[in-house]
Amino acid sequence: MAAPTPTPAPQLKPELASLQREKIDPRSARNLLRGAFKQNLQKLTRSCRHMCFLFHTPIDRNFGLITACGVEFNIHSVLLIGGSKMLQEGVFPGGTMPPSPPTFVHLPERFHPILVDRIVSFIYTSDYAFGPRGVGHVLEQKDFEFKNATLIPDGSSPTAATPTLVGIHGFAFHFRIYALAEEMEYDALKSAAHHKLVNILVQQHKKSPFLLKELVNVTFAPSVEVGRICKDEDGVLQQVVIAAIIAHECNGWSEKETREFADSLEHPEYVGFWHGYNMVKEENRDLIKLGEYAKPLAAERKKTKNRNGRKAKKEMGGEGTTKGDGNLRAPLAGPPRQRENKFKKRHEGKRGVGAVPIAAKGREDGNMDLEDDELL
């Protein structure tokens, strides 16, 4: 009988340690305990797939917004509840469900299809986006693109449906969204447009006086017929424009630009603007003084920084100097023997009288074979 073949012992294979960060399910007990013990807790995320699904699904889009040029946008009518009072009342009159609810509404011509497209985005996401390059950018055909249109009739391509908005500045787009929100009685949309205008006009500086003069025209004109875009019955947009102008005067414009802006608004139709401007300026004189005080300080800091930068560059052998070759060690350069003598003088002075016997003793014992000069 043959002897049984011995089974080889299992070999342990060392595994290389992974340099990757440990992957942990944010919902696991380990991750929760990491947070309890002040470690790096991976944030728990809340799912918003429901609204995302509604935004993209064609299921039960039972209400249509039809623009004057025939571009249609089908949406879920239930999402109109609590939004635009005009649309909600049209679909659910008196807050009730009619036996045969309407399935579409024809919008007036002023409801431009591109504007309606962005409003549909807001209905689903509570935000709308528009992509021109900055507030001063003039809108072109390439800036327009339908994202939510359900039907675009033949002959009404995205480019053919946009000519009335081509050539306007980017800020005017948000003014038009605000105007439609006023007509639709859509407070949330008004708030979103107002927020975008504050961001690009007040919080972002360096806008030209010519651009802000256009803002005065579209907000302080007496009626829509002569250039006004929004009703602005509570004067909120006028406050934005006045704040933007004062902020630019204090933080961005030169004296020449400020004077040119004032000269361009000397006509009688701007009396209302100057009245509001002077009132706001008087009420906020304390803040304006802080801005006027900070402006020359900021200019002086910038000038000092530039001057110090040029000085440092010159000392390091940079542009405008012939000292050295640009090497950081160039200022330390000198005759080698001179550096050696300075070193000896400094250290011999520190050793004093006791230095000679110690050095001599070291040489007598054979433990020190180098002279001080050789150490250098």
Automatic annotation (TrEMBL):
* Superkingdom of origin organism: Eukaryota
Query: Residue ranges under compositional bias (Basic residues)?
Result: 302-313
Protein name (Swiss-Prot/TrEMBL): BTB domain-containing protein
State the residue spans of region: Disordered. 299-376
Query: Which species does the entry assign this protein to?
Result: Decorospora gaudefroyi
Q: Where is the composition biased (Acidic residues)?
A: 367-376
